[in-house]
Amino acid sequence: MSSMLLLLGILATSSAAAATEGDRPNVVIIMTDDQGFGDLGVQGHPVLKTPRIDALAAESATVGAFYVHPVCTPTRAALFTGRHPQRTTAIDTWIGRAMLEPEEVTIAERLREAGYATGIFGKWHLGDCHPMRPMDQGFDVSVVHRGGGISQPADPEGGEGRYTDPILRRNGVLESFEGWCTDVYVDEMTAWMEAQHGPFLAVLTTNAPHGPFHDIPVEEYQRYKAMDLEPTGASNHDRMARILAMDANIDENVGRILDTLERLGMAENTLVLYLHDNGADHDGYSVGLRGRKGTVYEGGVRTPFFARWPGRFPPGNRTDAVGMHLDLAPTILQACGVKNADGRIDGRSLLGVLEGREAGDPERSVIIQAHRGDSPVEWSNAMIRSGRWKLVNPSGFGRELSEGESAPRVFELYDLLSDPSERNNLIAAEPAIVRQLQDQYEAWFKDVDRGGHAAYLPHPISLGAITEPVWLTRQDWRRTTKGAWGGRSNGYWLVEPVTAGPFRVMVRQLEGQPRPDRVRLRFDGEVIAETEVDSENVTIVFESVAMPLKIGRLTAEIQDASGEYGAYQVGVELAAKREPDLHD
């Protein structure tokens, strides 16, 4: 070891000891949504300018490769728990498969128990209803949108599609805000940081640059729309200008967070972590990586990763180390001097690697799997990387397999050191490597799999446990007939009334549909309320509904001249409670 490395190791070890004795750092996590591996200036993007993130990268440590899941929810479950999503019920992004069990322990819960203030701003996407909201999972303060994104079926009434002037939930209560959504999150986040008098965990999880792209920062859009975007390789100039506008706005807001830390004198004792949640959901510049969001090729599962802690993390690339989202929880806990008492975490701490006092493990195995469906299926849309070798079964994210059905297996093997773009399939040339990686994956799957569809049912949504209305949306329902997410399909919500009521139930129908003739509520198939409809109101209200005190399936059936379909949203509150009018 050189004298410089020895000195760094001594300083890092001494500093680590100090952290356990009370000099605990603040932690800031910044994670964007659907921003690709190449969508930063520091990544070599030919058009996009991101000076603040580029500067953050220059001041940060990173690793040779950093992996996430190829879609939103599994990445968030892994980041917050440090556990493989397959151990949890948060395995997909919609229709009841994106709900993290309350029994899972998040880093927010662990840090709050250790005396940290905790706040999240932006996107949660791990359950909208009690007991799965951010405030139920360790966050003191949350300002978040519902569902998996704005412009989805979880949008509140009046807030549909509004990235600008959104309706968000502050600590579970709907509130109207002014401004572009990412600006709003950072306004709230920086104000909250400024109000803290002890160590804190502050999480910014933007829903940008996730589509749709109808509502974007205007000034940045005009700038990129006027530019030559052909070097990006994008097929649609206007769409790319809109995405780059959101990327540029994120960069400006990252700068605002860093400036706030400097102004408050917190920068030196704050661990800042930056990453993306999955690959890009668009074509364009990808640093040559193959694939995009949803795939298990590198373009779907690789993210930039920057870790800044002045005086603790010497800037630079630890090229011998491979990391993943599972590692953030144990890294943060170790940095904050918080022990992982229950041993439930799958990730490994990267603290020593980032500090420069430990070598990485270039032969580490990383396994990623994500696909639609009610439970994981062996080898469905899966990858394993071990050292230079990567085995993939790229069967696709969107295909849903029935229970007992096997995933199609068309394996591909790549040498990432010589072929980072995954173009030269070596499956026939290296049978021993293939078998070795298959054995590792299959042992992993046996370990993490809970066992069939029933084991992955979401935790029931509590009714009557909180004073705020519980809004049941198609984000969290269990679909019983296939169809468009916002179309005339059917489904139910798994609920658990903690009181018989009575409840006030508000049933929202789909916009643009014929006036309903009848609306019927069922609990486990039994009718508990029904009414004929004689008005044009989109929302039909039942003023007093009793429910059984048990876990069951709640459905709201709407009948009209075209047939029957499930409600778009259902609000449930104790009958004595009335929801405030957001439009006052």
Characterization of the model:
This protein is α+β, with helices and mostly antiparallel strands and 584 residues long. It folds into three domains: 3-120 and 202-355, Alkaline Phosphatase, subunit A (3-Layer(aba) Sandwich), CATH 3.40.720.10; 365-453, 2-Layer Sandwich (Arylsulfatase, C-terminal domain), CATH 3.30.1120.10; 460-574, Galactose-binding domain-like (Jelly Rolls, Sandwich). It has eleven helices and 25 strands. The protein has helices at 3-20, 51-58, 72-81, 107-113, 181-194, 218-225, 237-263, 298-301, 328-335, 351-355, 431-448; strands spanning 26-32, 61-67, 117-122, 141-144, 167-170, 173-176, 200-205, 270-276, 305-308, 316-324, 365-369, 382-386, 389-393, 412-415, 461-463, 470-473, 478-479, 491-497, 503-508, 518-523, 526-532, 539-545, 552-560, 563-566, 569-574. The strands form five sheets. Strands 6-5-4-3-7-1-8-9 form an eight-stranded mixed beta sheet, sandwiched between helices. A hairpin with a 2-residue loop joins strand 23 and strand 24. Helix 5 packs parallel to helix 7 (237-263) and helix 6 crosses helix 7 (237-263). The radius of gyration is 24 Å and the shape is globular. Residues 1-21 have low confidence and may be disordered.
